[in-house]
Protein backbone atom coordinates (compact mmCIF):
# COMPACT_ATOMS: atom_id res chain seq x y z
CA UNK A 1 0.00 0.00 0.00
CA UNK A 2 1.37 3.46 -0.80
CA UNK A 3 2.78 5.35 2.16
CA UNK A 4 1.15 8.70 2.78
CA UNK A 5 2.74 10.74 5.52
CA UNK A 6 0.36 13.67 5.71
CA UNK A 7 -2.78 11.61 5.17
CA UNK A 8 -2.66 8.63 7.47
CA UNK A 9 -4.60 5.48 6.91
CA UNK A 10 -7.60 5.91 9.22
CA UNK A 11 -10.91 4.31 9.91
CA UNK A 12 -12.12 5.62 13.17
CA UNK A 13 -15.11 6.65 15.23
CA UNK A 14 -14.15 9.48 17.55
CA UNK A 15 -15.14 9.62 21.16
CA UNK A 16 -18.73 10.72 21.36
CA UNK A 17 -19.27 10.23 17.64
CA UNK A 18 -21.97 7.63 17.12
CA UNK A 19 -21.94 5.03 14.39
CA UNK A 20 -24.48 4.94 11.64
CA UNK A 21 -25.96 1.83 13.25
CA UNK A 22 -28.18 2.15 16.34
CA UNK A 23 -26.08 -0.48 18.15
CA UNK A 24 -23.11 1.84 18.28
CA UNK A 25 -21.57 2.61 21.64
CA UNK A 26 -18.73 4.52 23.27
CA UNK A 27 -16.38 2.91 25.80
CA UNK A 28 -14.14 5.48 27.46
CA UNK A 29 -12.92 6.86 24.13
CA UNK A 30 -13.65 5.10 20.88
CA UNK A 31 -12.29 5.12 17.37
CA UNK A 32 -13.33 2.95 14.52
CA UNK A 33 -10.43 2.37 12.24
CA UNK A 34 -10.46 0.92 8.75
CA UNK A 35 -6.94 0.51 7.58
CA UNK A 36 -2.72 1.36 7.14
CA UNK A 37 0.37 3.00 7.66
CA UNK A 38 0.43 3.71 6.97
CA UNK A 39 0.28 4.07 8.61
CA UNK A 40 0.55 4.42 10.29
CA UNK A 41 -4.38 5.16 19.00
CA UNK A 42 -7.52 6.93 21.44
CA UNK A 43 -8.84 7.40 25.03
CA UNK A 44 -9.37 3.96 26.55
CA UNK A 45 -11.57 3.21 23.64
CA UNK A 46 -11.79 1.01 20.68
CA UNK A 47 -13.20 0.79 17.20
CA UNK A 48 -13.93 -1.78 14.47
CA UNK A 49 -12.18 -2.66 11.05
CA UNK A 50 -11.48 -5.89 9.10
CA UNK A 51 -8.52 -7.85 10.40
CA UNK A 52 -6.16 -10.34 8.94
CA UNK A 53 -3.33 -11.99 10.74
CA UNK A 54 -0.58 -12.89 8.33
CA UNK A 55 0.52 -15.71 10.60
CA UNK A 56 -0.63 -19.22 9.72
CA UNK A 57 -3.14 -20.19 12.39
CA UNK A 58 -1.28 -23.35 13.41
CA UNK A 59 2.27 -21.97 13.43
CA UNK A 60 4.09 -22.92 16.62
CA UNK A 61 5.30 -19.85 18.52
CA UNK A 62 8.67 -21.41 19.32
CA UNK A 63 9.50 -21.39 15.62
CA UNK A 64 9.20 -17.62 15.60
CA UNK A 65 11.38 -17.39 18.67
CA UNK A 66 14.19 -19.41 17.12
CA UNK A 67 14.04 -17.31 13.97
CA UNK A 68 14.04 -14.12 15.99
CA UNK A 69 17.06 -15.13 18.02
CA UNK A 70 19.22 -17.21 15.77
CA UNK A 71 18.22 -16.00 12.28
CA UNK A 72 18.30 -19.66 11.15
CA UNK A 73 18.10 -20.36 7.44
CA UNK A 74 14.59 -20.99 6.17
CA UNK A 75 13.81 -24.51 4.98
CA UNK A 76 13.86 -24.97 1.24
CA UNK A 77 10.29 -24.41 0.01
CA UNK A 78 8.99 -24.29 -3.53
CA UNK A 79 10.98 -22.29 -6.07
CA UNK A 80 8.85 -19.13 -5.96
CA UNK A 81 8.92 -19.04 -2.19
CA UNK A 82 12.67 -19.63 -2.16
CA UNK A 83 13.20 -16.72 -4.53
CA UNK A 84 11.03 -14.51 -2.33
CA UNK A 85 13.07 -15.48 0.73
CA UNK A 86 16.37 -14.82 -1.04
CA UNK A 87 15.26 -11.38 -2.15
CA UNK A 88 13.92 -10.58 1.30
CA UNK A 89 17.13 -11.64 3.04
CA UNK A 90 19.08 -9.41 0.65
CA UNK A 91 16.95 -6.45 1.70
CA UNK A 92 17.50 -7.39 5.34
CA UNK A 93 21.27 -7.65 4.90
CA UNK A 94 21.22 -4.09 3.53
CA UNK A 95 19.10 -3.05 6.54
CA UNK A 96 16.31 -1.89 4.25
CA UNK A 97 13.71 -2.87 6.78
CA UNK A 98 10.78 -0.94 5.31
CA UNK A 99 11.36 -2.43 1.88
CA UNK A 100 11.72 -5.88 3.43
CA UNK A 101 8.39 -5.58 5.23
CA UNK A 102 6.60 -4.55 2.04
CA UNK A 103 8.28 -7.38 0.15
CA UNK A 104 7.28 -10.00 2.71
CA UNK A 105 3.72 -8.66 2.94
CA UNK A 106 3.35 -8.91 -0.83
CA UNK A 107 4.88 -12.37 -1.16
CA UNK A 108 2.91 -13.67 1.83
CA UNK A 109 -0.18 -13.07 -0.27
CA UNK A 110 1.26 -15.35 -2.94
CA UNK A 111 2.29 -18.01 -0.40
CA UNK A 112 -0.20 -17.61 2.48
CA UNK A 113 0.86 -20.88 4.14
CA UNK A 114 4.55 -19.97 4.28
CA UNK A 115 5.72 -19.85 7.89
CA UNK A 116 9.20 -18.79 6.72
CA UNK A 117 7.96 -15.65 4.95
CA UNK A 118 5.86 -14.75 7.96
CA UNK A 119 8.82 -15.20 10.30
CA UNK A 120 11.04 -12.97 8.18
CA UNK A 121 8.33 -10.32 8.06
CA UNK A 122 8.10 -10.39 11.87
CA UNK A 123 11.87 -9.97 12.20
CA UNK A 124 11.95 -7.13 9.66
CA UNK A 125 9.08 -5.41 11.42
CA UNK A 126 10.83 -5.63 14.79
CA UNK A 127 14.01 -4.07 13.36
CA UNK A 128 12.08 -1.36 11.52
CA UNK A 129 9.96 -0.51 14.54
CA UNK A 130 12.80 -0.17 17.04
CA UNK A 131 14.62 2.21 14.68
CA UNK A 132 11.49 4.23 14.17
CA UNK A 133 10.71 4.37 17.88
CA UNK A 134 14.19 5.61 18.73
CA UNK A 135 13.89 8.35 16.12
CA UNK A 136 10.64 9.56 17.75
CA UNK A 137 11.35 12.30 20.26
CA UNK A 138 8.04 11.78 22.08
CA UNK A 139 8.84 8.09 22.57
CA UNK A 140 12.33 8.92 23.83
CA UNK A 141 10.80 11.37 26.29
CA UNK A 142 8.57 8.57 27.61
CA UNK A 143 11.60 6.30 28.08
CA UNK A 144 13.28 9.04 30.11
CA UNK A 145 10.28 10.15 32.15
CA UNK A 146 8.30 7.01 32.95
CA UNK A 147 9.28 4.81 35.87
CA UNK A 148 9.55 1.05 35.40
CA UNK A 149 6.36 0.66 37.43
CA UNK A 150 4.50 3.08 35.15
CA UNK A 151 5.76 1.26 32.06
CA UNK A 152 4.52 -2.02 33.54
CA UNK A 153 1.12 -0.41 34.11
CA UNK A 154 1.00 0.55 30.41
CA UNK A 155 1.95 -3.03 29.52
CA UNK A 156 -0.83 -4.39 31.73
CA UNK A 157 -3.34 -2.02 30.19
CA UNK A 158 -2.33 -3.02 26.68
CA UNK A 159 -2.63 -6.71 27.53
CA UNK A 160 -6.08 -6.14 29.03
CA UNK A 161 -7.22 -4.55 25.77
CA UNK A 162 -5.85 -7.50 23.79
CA UNK A 163 -7.76 -9.91 25.99
CA UNK A 164 -11.02 -8.01 25.66
CA UNK A 165 -11.01 -6.60 22.14
CA UNK A 166 -8.55 -8.34 19.82
CA UNK A 167 -10.26 -10.05 16.89
CA UNK A 168 -8.76 -13.46 17.68
CA UNK A 169 -8.11 -15.40 20.86
CA UNK A 170 -4.80 -14.25 22.31
CA UNK A 171 -2.03 -16.79 22.79
CA UNK A 172 -0.14 -15.39 25.78
CA UNK A 173 2.87 -17.64 25.14
CA UNK A 174 3.24 -16.19 21.68
CA UNK A 175 2.79 -12.63 22.95
CA UNK A 176 5.64 -13.15 25.43
CA UNK A 177 7.89 -14.70 22.78
CA UNK A 178 7.37 -11.74 20.48
CA UNK A 179 8.05 -9.31 23.32
CA UNK A 180 11.26 -11.17 24.08
CA UNK A 181 12.20 -11.11 20.40
CA UNK A 182 11.66 -7.33 20.30
CA UNK A 183 14.12 -6.82 23.15
CA UNK A 184 16.65 -9.14 21.52
CA UNK A 185 16.40 -7.23 18.26
CA UNK A 186 16.72 -3.88 20.04
CA UNK A 187 19.96 -5.02 21.65
CA UNK A 188 21.62 -5.37 18.22
CA UNK A 189 20.33 -2.04 16.86
CA UNK A 190 22.72 0.91 17.09
CA UNK A 191 20.00 3.46 17.78
CA UNK A 192 18.89 1.55 20.87
CA UNK A 193 22.36 0.65 22.15
CA UNK A 194 23.93 4.05 21.47
CA UNK A 195 21.18 5.86 23.39
CA UNK A 196 20.70 3.49 26.32
CA UNK A 197 23.92 1.48 26.65
CA UNK A 198 26.68 3.74 25.27
CA UNK A 199 29.31 2.50 27.74
CA UNK A 200 28.23 -1.11 28.08
CA UNK A 201 30.59 -3.97 27.31
CA UNK A 202 29.40 -5.38 23.94
CA UNK A 203 30.24 -8.91 25.08
CA UNK A 204 28.01 -8.53 28.14
CA UNK A 205 25.20 -7.09 26.01
CA UNK A 206 25.41 -10.02 23.62
CA UNK A 207 25.56 -12.56 26.45
CA UNK A 208 22.47 -11.04 28.03
CA UNK A 209 20.68 -10.94 24.68
CA UNK A 210 21.37 -14.62 24.12
CA UNK A 211 20.10 -15.50 27.58
CA UNK A 212 16.75 -13.68 27.62
CA UNK A 213 14.70 -16.45 26.05
CA UNK A 214 16.29 -19.07 28.33
CA UNK A 215 15.69 -16.97 31.44
CA UNK A 216 11.96 -17.05 30.72
CA UNK A 217 11.73 -20.76 30.05
CA UNK A 218 9.62 -22.45 32.67
CA UNK A 219 7.83 -19.26 33.67
CA UNK A 220 4.06 -19.39 33.37
CA UNK A 221 2.32 -17.73 30.43
CA UNK A 222 -1.18 -18.77 31.44
CA UNK A 223 -2.50 -15.24 31.99
CA UNK A 224 -1.66 -11.65 31.15
CA UNK A 225 -0.62 -11.16 34.76
CA UNK A 226 2.09 -13.77 34.23
CA UNK A 227 3.39 -11.75 31.28
CA UNK A 228 3.64 -8.61 33.41
CA UNK A 229 5.60 -10.55 36.02
CA UNK A 230 7.98 -11.90 33.37
CA UNK A 231 8.57 -8.44 31.89
CA UNK A 232 9.33 -7.10 35.37
CA UNK A 233 11.72 -10.00 35.95
CA UNK A 234 13.69 -9.35 32.74
CA UNK A 235 13.69 -5.59 33.39
CA UNK A 236 15.28 -6.13 36.80
CA UNK A 237 17.90 -8.50 35.36
CA UNK A 238 18.73 -6.06 32.53
CA UNK A 239 19.18 -3.22 34.98
CA UNK A 240 21.40 -5.33 37.26
CA UNK A 241 23.58 -6.86 34.53
CA UNK A 242 23.74 -4.04 31.96
CA UNK A 243 22.48 -0.90 33.64
CA UNK A 244 19.66 -0.82 31.08
CA UNK A 245 16.62 1.28 31.94
CA UNK A 246 13.80 -0.90 33.23
CA UNK A 247 11.36 1.36 31.43
CA UNK A 248 13.08 0.78 28.09
CA UNK A 249 13.05 -2.99 28.64
CA UNK A 250 9.32 -3.10 29.43
CA UNK A 251 8.46 -0.84 26.49
CA UNK A 252 10.30 -3.22 24.16
CA UNK A 253 8.26 -6.14 25.52
CA UNK A 254 5.15 -4.06 25.01
CA UNK A 255 6.05 -2.94 21.49
CA UNK A 256 6.96 -6.43 20.32
CA UNK A 257 3.81 -7.92 21.74
CA UNK A 258 1.68 -5.42 19.84
CA UNK A 259 3.46 -5.02 16.50
CA UNK A 260 3.63 -8.73 15.68
CA UNK A 261 -0.03 -9.61 16.19
CA UNK A 262 -0.92 -8.64 12.62
CA UNK A 263 0.19 -6.04 10.04
CA UNK A 264 -2.16 -3.34 11.34
CA UNK A 265 -2.03 -3.51 15.14
CA UNK A 266 0.60 -1.17 16.56
CA UNK A 267 1.64 0.94 19.52
CA UNK A 268 1.17 4.69 19.09
CA UNK A 269 3.70 7.01 20.67
CA UNK A 270 2.48 10.32 22.15
CA UNK A 271 3.19 12.21 18.93
CA UNK A 272 1.62 9.50 16.77
CA UNK A 273 -1.47 9.59 18.96
CA UNK A 274 -1.77 13.37 18.49
CA UNK A 275 -1.20 12.99 14.76
CA UNK A 276 -3.90 10.36 14.57
CA UNK A 277 -6.44 12.74 16.06
CA UNK A 278 -5.33 15.50 13.70
CA UNK A 279 -5.77 13.33 10.63
CA UNK A 280 -9.20 12.18 11.71
CA UNK A 281 -10.25 15.77 12.23
CA UNK A 282 -8.85 16.70 8.80
CA UNK A 283 -6.13 19.05 9.98
CA UNK A 284 -2.58 18.75 11.22
CA UNK A 285 0.52 20.77 12.00
CA UNK A 286 2.93 20.44 9.11
CA UNK A 287 4.12 21.80 5.80
CA UNK A 288 1.05 20.94 3.72
CA UNK A 289 2.57 18.18 1.60
CA UNK A 290 1.41 14.75 0.54
CA UNK A 291 4.40 12.48 0.06
CA UNK A 292 5.26 9.02 -1.16
CA UNK A 293 8.52 7.30 -0.25
CA UNK A 294 10.67 6.22 -3.19
CA UNK A 295 14.01 4.38 -3.10
CA UNK A 296 16.15 7.44 -2.36
CA UNK A 297 13.82 10.44 -2.26
CA UNK A 298 10.38 11.63 -1.20
CA UNK A 299 8.02 12.25 -4.10
CA UNK A 300 5.71 15.23 -3.60
CA UNK A 301 2.31 13.96 -4.78
CA UNK A 302 0.41 17.13 -4.06
CA UNK A 303 0.70 20.43 -2.24
CA UNK A 304 -2.21 21.59 -0.13
CA UNK A 305 -3.71 24.85 -1.31
CA UNK A 306 -2.82 27.85 0.86
CA UNK A 307 -0.50 25.71 2.98
CA UNK A 308 3.02 26.82 3.95
CA UNK A 309 4.73 24.67 1.29
CA UNK A 310 2.64 26.18 -1.51
CA UNK A 311 3.37 29.67 -0.21
CA UNK A 312 7.10 28.89 -0.39
CA UNK A 313 6.81 27.88 -4.05
CA UNK A 314 6.94 24.08 -3.68
CA UNK A 315 4.98 22.21 -6.35
CA UNK A 316 3.57 18.74 -6.90
CA UNK A 317 5.93 16.49 -8.84
CA UNK A 318 9.06 17.86 -7.17
CA UNK A 319 11.23 15.75 -4.89
CA UNK A 320 12.50 16.20 -1.36
CA UNK A 321 16.06 14.91 -1.11
CA UNK A 322 17.04 16.21 2.34
CA UNK A 323 15.45 17.53 5.53
CA UNK A 324 17.52 19.53 8.01
CA UNK A 325 20.68 18.23 6.38
CA UNK A 326 19.67 14.55 6.51
CA UNK A 327 19.67 13.15 2.98
CA UNK A 328 17.21 10.58 1.64
CA UNK A 329 19.99 8.76 -0.23
CA UNK A 330 21.82 8.19 3.07
CA UNK A 331 18.97 7.49 5.49
CA UNK A 332 15.71 5.70 4.66
CA UNK A 333 13.24 8.15 3.08
CA UNK A 334 10.64 7.09 5.66
CA UNK A 335 12.96 8.20 8.45
CA UNK A 336 13.69 11.51 6.70
CA UNK A 337 9.93 12.07 6.28
CA UNK A 338 9.55 11.86 10.06
CA UNK A 339 11.89 14.85 10.36
CA UNK A 340 9.26 16.99 8.65
CA UNK A 341 7.14 16.70 11.78
CA UNK A 342 7.57 19.26 14.52
CA UNK A 343 5.81 21.79 16.74
CA UNK A 344 3.65 24.56 15.33
CA UNK A 345 5.55 27.71 14.26
CA UNK A 346 8.85 25.85 14.01
CA UNK A 347 10.70 25.56 10.67
CA UNK A 348 12.00 22.73 8.49
CA UNK A 349 14.90 23.26 6.09
CA UNK A 350 14.25 21.05 3.09
CA UNK A 351 16.20 20.49 -0.10
CA UNK A 352 13.90 20.23 -3.10
CA UNK A 353 14.75 19.04 -6.60
CA UNK A 354 12.50 20.07 -9.50
CA UNK A 355 11.69 17.92 -12.53
CA UNK A 356 14.88 19.14 -14.26
CA UNK A 357 17.03 18.04 -11.31
CA UNK A 358 17.77 21.59 -10.18
CA UNK A 359 17.94 21.74 -6.38
CA UNK A 360 17.19 24.52 -3.94
CA UNK A 361 16.89 24.84 -0.16
CA UNK A 362 13.63 26.13 1.25
CA UNK A 363 12.90 27.08 4.86
CA UNK A 364 9.26 26.17 5.42
CA UNK A 365 7.23 27.00 8.55
CA UNK A 366 5.10 24.35 10.21
CA UNK A 367 1.51 25.52 10.61
CA UNK A 368 -1.89 23.99 11.16
CA UNK A 369 -3.17 22.93 7.77
CA UNK A 370 -6.66 21.93 6.71
CA UNK A 371 -6.40 18.70 4.71
CA UNK A 372 -8.86 18.41 1.80
CA UNK A 373 -10.17 14.90 1.16
CA UNK A 374 -11.88 15.82 -2.14
CA UNK A 375 -9.81 17.22 -4.97
CA UNK A 376 -9.66 17.80 -8.73
CA UNK A 377 -13.42 18.30 -9.12
CA UNK A 378 -14.20 18.94 -12.81
CA UNK A 379 -15.74 17.52 -15.98
CA UNK A 380 -13.52 14.97 -17.69
CA UNK A 381 -15.94 14.95 -20.63
CA UNK A 382 -17.52 18.42 -20.91
CA UNK A 383 -19.65 17.42 -23.91
CA UNK A 384 -21.31 14.48 -22.16
CA UNK A 385 -21.11 16.20 -18.77
CA UNK A 386 -19.17 13.39 -17.08
CA UNK A 387 -18.13 14.71 -13.67
CA UNK A 388 -15.05 13.62 -11.76
CA UNK A 389 -13.73 13.91 -8.23
CA UNK A 390 -10.84 12.28 -6.43
CA UNK A 391 -11.37 11.12 -2.87
CA UNK A 392 -7.98 11.00 -1.13
CA UNK A 393 -9.07 9.62 2.27
CA UNK A 394 -12.05 9.25 4.59
CA UNK A 395 -12.12 11.68 7.51
CA UNK A 396 -14.68 13.59 9.56
CA UNK A 397 -15.21 16.19 6.83
CA UNK A 398 -15.55 13.74 3.93
CA UNK A 399 -19.34 13.55 3.75
CA UNK A 400 -19.64 17.33 3.86
CA UNK A 401 -16.91 17.86 1.26
CA UNK A 402 -18.19 15.28 -1.19
CA UNK A 403 -21.73 16.67 -0.89
CA UNK A 404 -20.43 20.14 -1.68
CA UNK A 405 -18.63 18.83 -4.77
CA UNK A 406 -21.70 16.92 -5.95
CA UNK A 407 -23.92 19.97 -5.75
CA UNK A 408 -21.32 22.03 -7.60
CA UNK A 409 -21.25 19.49 -10.45
CA UNK A 410 -25.03 19.14 -10.40
CA UNK A 411 -25.50 22.88 -10.87
CA UNK A 412 -23.34 22.53 -13.98
CA UNK A 413 -25.72 19.85 -15.30
CA UNK A 414 -23.72 16.74 -14.48
CA UNK A 415 -25.08 13.64 -16.25
CA UNK A 416 -22.80 10.99 -14.77
CA UNK A 417 -20.04 10.79 -12.19
CA UNK A 418 -16.62 9.19 -11.65
CA UNK A 419 -15.33 8.85 -8.08
CA UNK A 420 -11.63 8.04 -7.94
CA UNK A 421 -10.34 6.19 -4.86
CA UNK A 422 -7.10 4.93 -6.42
CA UNK A 423 -4.29 5.15 -3.90
CA UNK A 424 -6.77 6.01 -1.14
CA UNK A 425 -5.45 4.11 1.90
CA UNK A 426 -8.62 4.34 3.99
CA UNK A 427 -9.98 6.39 6.84
CA UNK A 428 -13.02 6.53 9.07
CA UNK A 429 -15.33 3.57 8.76
CA UNK A 430 -18.30 5.82 9.47
CA UNK A 431 -17.30 8.19 6.65
CA UNK A 432 -17.07 5.32 4.15
CA UNK A 433 -20.53 4.12 5.15
CA UNK A 434 -21.98 7.63 4.89
CA UNK A 435 -20.53 8.20 1.41
CA UNK A 436 -21.88 4.84 0.20
CA UNK A 437 -25.26 5.74 1.68
CA UNK A 438 -25.40 8.85 -0.52
CA UNK A 439 -25.54 6.60 -3.60
CA UNK A 440 -27.56 3.62 -2.32
CA UNK A 441 -31.27 3.92 -1.57
CA UNK A 442 -31.50 0.67 0.37
CA UNK A 443 -29.73 -2.60 1.08
CA UNK A 444 -26.70 -3.55 3.11
CA UNK A 445 -23.50 -1.51 2.95
CA UNK A 446 -21.18 -3.35 5.32
CA UNK A 447 -20.99 -6.08 7.95
CA UNK A 448 -18.36 -6.25 10.68
CA UNK A 449 -17.68 -9.31 12.82
CA UNK A 450 -15.30 -9.62 15.77
CA UNK A 451 -14.51 -12.03 18.60
CA UNK A 452 -16.26 -9.64 20.95
CA UNK A 453 -19.96 -9.49 19.99
CA UNK A 454 -19.90 -5.76 20.60
CA UNK A 455 -17.89 -5.46 17.39
CA UNK A 456 -20.68 -6.98 15.28
CA UNK A 457 -22.52 -4.40 13.20
CA UNK A 458 -24.70 -4.42 10.10
CA UNK A 459 -24.79 -1.11 8.24
CA UNK A 460 -27.66 -0.46 5.84
CA UNK A 461 -28.50 2.30 3.35
CA UNK A 462 -31.35 4.74 3.87
CA UNK A 463 -33.61 5.92 1.06
CA UNK A 464 -33.64 9.72 1.73
CA UNK A 465 -31.08 12.02 0.05
CA UNK A 466 -29.79 9.52 -2.48
CA UNK A 467 -27.95 10.63 -5.61
CA UNK A 468 -29.18 8.66 -8.62
CA UNK A 469 -26.52 9.81 -11.07
CA UNK A 470 -24.86 6.99 -13.12
CA UNK A 471 -21.65 6.12 -11.32
CA UNK A 472 -18.18 4.68 -11.90
CA UNK A 473 -15.65 4.06 -9.14
CA UNK A 474 -11.92 3.85 -9.93
CA UNK A 475 -9.79 1.49 -7.81
CA UNK A 476 -6.27 0.06 -7.82
CA UNK A 477 -3.93 -1.91 -5.59
CA UNK A 478 -3.53 1.14 -3.35
CA UNK A 479 -7.27 1.41 -2.63
CA UNK A 480 -7.60 -0.04 0.85
CA UNK A 481 -9.75 -0.31 3.91
CA UNK A 482 -12.45 2.39 3.92
CA UNK A 483 -12.03 2.72 0.13
CA UNK A 484 -12.87 -0.96 -0.15
CA UNK A 485 -15.95 -0.52 2.02
CA UNK A 486 -17.24 2.11 -0.39
CA UNK A 487 -16.22 0.34 -3.61
CA UNK A 488 -17.45 -3.03 -2.33
CA UNK A 489 -20.89 -1.63 -1.52
CA UNK A 490 -21.21 -0.05 -4.98
CA UNK A 491 -19.97 -3.24 -6.67
CA UNK A 492 -22.16 -5.73 -4.79
CA UNK A 493 -25.30 -3.62 -5.18
CA UNK A 494 -24.73 -3.16 -8.93
CA UNK A 495 -25.16 0.56 -8.33
CA UNK A 496 -22.20 1.48 -10.54
CA UNK A 497 -19.26 0.07 -12.48
CA UNK A 498 -15.88 -0.52 -10.87
CA UNK A 499 -12.97 0.30 -13.17
CA UNK A 500 -9.26 -0.40 -12.73
CA UNK A 501 -7.42 -3.11 -10.81
CA UNK A 502 -8.27 -5.30 -7.82
CA UNK A 503 -7.98 -3.33 -4.59
CA UNK A 504 -5.51 -3.96 -1.77
CA UNK A 505 -7.55 -6.43 0.26
CA UNK A 506 -7.41 -5.00 3.77
CA UNK A 507 -10.66 -6.02 5.35
CA UNK A 508 -9.95 -5.24 8.97
CA UNK A 509 -11.22 -2.79 11.55
CA UNK A 510 -8.82 -1.22 14.01
CA UNK A 511 -9.94 0.28 17.28
CA UNK A 512 -7.98 3.16 18.73
CA UNK A 513 -7.45 3.02 22.51
CA UNK A 514 -5.85 5.70 24.61
CA UNK A 515 -4.00 4.33 27.62
CA UNK A 516 -4.87 5.76 31.01
CA UNK A 517 -1.55 5.04 32.72
CA UNK A 518 0.57 7.09 30.30
CA UNK A 519 0.23 8.93 27.02
CA UNK A 520 0.34 6.00 24.61
CA UNK A 521 -2.23 4.68 22.18
CA UNK A 522 -3.06 1.26 20.84
CA UNK A 523 -4.25 0.71 17.29
CA UNK A 524 -5.82 -2.74 17.66
CA UNK A 525 -7.52 -4.98 15.12
CA UNK A 526 -10.95 -5.72 16.54
CA UNK A 527 -13.08 -7.07 13.68
CA UNK A 528 -13.24 -8.14 10.06
CA UNK A 529 -15.51 -6.52 7.53
CA UNK A 530 -17.49 -8.02 4.69
CA UNK A 531 -19.10 -6.58 1.58
CA UNK A 532 -22.91 -6.65 1.23
CA UNK A 533 -22.79 -10.07 -0.45
CA UNK A 534 -20.91 -11.48 2.56
CA UNK A 535 -17.59 -11.63 0.74
CA UNK A 536 -14.50 -11.12 2.89
CA UNK A 537 -12.39 -8.20 1.66
CA UNK A 538 -9.27 -9.50 3.39
CA UNK A 539 -6.75 -10.85 0.89
CA UNK A 540 -9.46 -10.75 -1.81
CA UNK A 541 -9.99 -7.05 -2.36
CA UNK A 542 -12.70 -5.60 -4.57
CA UNK A 543 -12.58 -6.93 -8.13
CA UNK A 544 -13.28 -4.41 -10.95
CA UNK A 545 -16.19 -5.02 -13.29
CA UNK A 546 -14.16 -3.30 -16.03
CA UNK A 547 -10.51 -4.34 -15.60
CA UNK A 548 -7.97 -1.80 -16.85
CA UNK A 549 -4.23 -1.98 -16.21
CA UNK A 550 -3.01 0.70 -13.83
CA UNK A 551 -1.54 3.86 -15.28
CA UNK A 552 -0.54 7.13 -13.72
CA UNK A 553 -3.34 9.01 -12.01
CA UNK A 554 -4.60 12.26 -13.49
CA UNK A 555 -3.26 15.40 -11.78
CA UNK A 556 -0.63 13.30 -9.97
CA UNK A 557 3.08 13.17 -10.90
CA UNK A 558 4.44 10.44 -13.16
CA UNK A 559 7.85 8.83 -12.64
CA UNK A 560 9.58 11.95 -13.95
CA UNK A 561 7.54 14.26 -11.74
CA UNK A 562 5.38 15.63 -14.55
CA UNK A 563 1.70 16.04 -13.68
CA UNK A 564 -0.45 13.58 -15.65
CA UNK A 565 -3.25 14.91 -17.87
CA UNK A 566 -6.76 13.42 -18.06
CA UNK A 567 -6.20 12.00 -21.52
CA UNK A 568 -3.07 10.16 -20.30
CA UNK A 569 -4.98 8.29 -17.61
CA UNK A 570 -6.22 5.08 -19.26
CA UNK A 571 -8.37 4.03 -16.30
CA UNK A 572 -10.10 7.39 -16.16
CA UNK A 573 -10.64 7.43 -19.92
CA UNK A 574 -12.19 3.94 -19.87
CA UNK A 575 -14.61 4.98 -17.12
CA UNK A 576 -15.61 8.12 -19.03
CA UNK A 577 -16.12 6.04 -22.17
CA UNK A 578 -18.33 3.58 -20.30
CA UNK A 579 -20.47 6.32 -18.78
CA UNK A 580 -20.80 8.42 -21.93
CA UNK A 581 -22.66 5.59 -23.62
CA UNK A 582 -25.46 5.50 -21.08
CA UNK A 583 -25.92 9.03 -19.83
CA UNK A 584 -28.99 10.38 -18.11
CA UNK A 585 -29.57 13.64 -16.30
CA UNK A 586 -28.80 13.19 -12.64
CA UNK A 587 -31.65 13.63 -10.22
CA UNK A 588 -31.60 15.60 -7.00
CA UNK A 589 -31.22 13.63 -3.80
Automatic annotation (TrEMBL):
<dbReference type="GO" id="GO:0007165">
    <property type="term" value="P:signal transduction"/>
</dbReference>
<dbReference type="InterPro" id="IPR036034">
    <property type="entry name" value="PDZ_sf"/>
</dbReference>
<feature type="domain" description="PDZ">
    <location>
        <begin position="281"/>
        <end position="331"/>
    </location>
</feature>
<dbReference type="InterPro" id="IPR005151">
    <property type="entry name" value="Tail-specific_protease"/>
</dbReference>
<dbReference type="Pfam" id="PF17820">
    <property type="entry name" value="PDZ_6"/>
</dbReference>
<keyword id="KW-0645">Protease</keyword>
<dbReference type="GO" id="GO:0006508">
    <property type="term" value="P:proteolysis"/>
</dbReference>
<dbReference type="GO" id="GO:0030288">
    <property type="term" value="C:outer membrane-bounded periplasmic space"/>
</dbReference>
<keyword id="KW-0720">Serine protease</keyword>
<dbReference type="InterPro" id="IPR029045">
    <property type="entry name" value="ClpP/crotonase-like_dom_sf"/>
</dbReference>
<dbReference type="InterPro" id="IPR004447">
    <property type="entry name" value="Peptidase_S41A"/>
</dbReference>
<comment type="similarity">
    <text>Belongs to the peptidase S41A family.</text>
</comment>
<dbReference type="GO" id="GO:0004252">
    <property type="term" value="F:serine-type endopeptidase activity"/>
</dbReference>
<dbReference type="InterPro" id="IPR001478">
    <property type="entry name" value="PDZ"/>
</dbReference>
<dbReference type="Pfam" id="PF03572">
    <property type="entry name" value="Peptidase_S41"/>
</dbReference>
<dbReference type="InterPro" id="IPR041489">
    <property type="entry name" value="PDZ_6"/>
</dbReference>
<protein>
    <submittedName>
        <fullName>Carboxy-terminal processing protease CtpB</fullName>
        <ecNumber>3.4.21.102</ecNumber>
    </submittedName>
</protein>
<keyword id="KW-0378">Hydrolase</keyword>
Amino acid sequence: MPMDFSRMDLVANLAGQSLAHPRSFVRRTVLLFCSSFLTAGIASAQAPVDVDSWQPRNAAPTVVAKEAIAFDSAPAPIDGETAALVKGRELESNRMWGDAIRHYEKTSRQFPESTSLYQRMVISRLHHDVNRRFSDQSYLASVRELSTSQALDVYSEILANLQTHYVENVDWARVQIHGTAALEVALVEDKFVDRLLPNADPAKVEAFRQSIHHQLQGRSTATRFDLRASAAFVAARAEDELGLSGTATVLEFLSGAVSTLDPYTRLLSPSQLDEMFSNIEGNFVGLGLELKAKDDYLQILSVIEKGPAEEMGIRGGERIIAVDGVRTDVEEPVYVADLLRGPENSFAMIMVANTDGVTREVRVPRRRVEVPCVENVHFVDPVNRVGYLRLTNFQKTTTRDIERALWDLHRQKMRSLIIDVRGNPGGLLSAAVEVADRFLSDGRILTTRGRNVRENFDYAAHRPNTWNVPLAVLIDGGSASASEIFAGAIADSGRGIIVGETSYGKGSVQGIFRMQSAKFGLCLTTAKFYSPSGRAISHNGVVPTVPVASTHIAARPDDEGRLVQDNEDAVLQKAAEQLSGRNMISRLP
